[in-house]
């Protein structure tokens, strides 16, 4: 169950994320087996998986996909395409501290990462965002 937390208790790497005053943050302690259930219970049509660096576990079925090493990468995924393997690989990458940020219902013309600042940017009220804390012990939903 995701519970509301105050911004001061928000323990993720703030150097990689910019929050706005109107953001509401929810948090839940999770394990790999629970992550799929959480995603299934969230209302969204598609998602944008944002990775800072190179994922250790693949986040796409495209065998020919080249990830940029030490760069920002994105993978667009429809909710119906979230297979157990993909969800497990998202979690496994987060568990070994590959920075992963998931945008639920992303806007087509919106940028969610600032290369100049090397940060994920939350600058809208229309999307929701998922972020893992250190070692993927907790999952945050940012609205």
Short description:
The protein is an alpha+beta fold. The protein is built from 2 helices and 10 strands; from the N terminus they run βββαββαβββββ. Helices cover 15% and strands 31% of the residues.
Structural class, by secondary structure, is alpha+beta
Strands in their spatial order, largest beta sheet: 1-3-10-9-6-4-5
Q: In percent terms, what proportion of residues is strand?
A: 25-35%
Terminal residue distance: 16 Å
The helix tally amounts to 2
Summarize model confidence as the mean pLDDT. 77
Report the C-alpha radius of gyration, rounded.
14 Å
Shape: globular
Helix content: 10-25%
**Spans of at least 5 consecutive residues with low confidence:** 1-13
Provide the succession of SSEs.
EEEHEEHEEEEE
| Number of β-strand runs | 10
Question: What is the count of distinct domains?
Answer: 1
Main sheet makeup: 7 strands, antiparallel
Q: Assembly state here?
A: single chain
Layout of strands and helices, then pairs:
Elements: E1 3-5, E2 17-18, E3 25-29, H1 32-41, E4 46-52, E5 72-78, H2 84-95, E6 100-104, E7 113-114, E8 119-121, E9 128-132, E10 138-142
Parallel strand pairs: 2-8
Antiparallel strand pairs: 1-3, 3-10, 4-5, 4-6, 6-9, 7-8, 9-10
Helix pairs in contact: 1-2
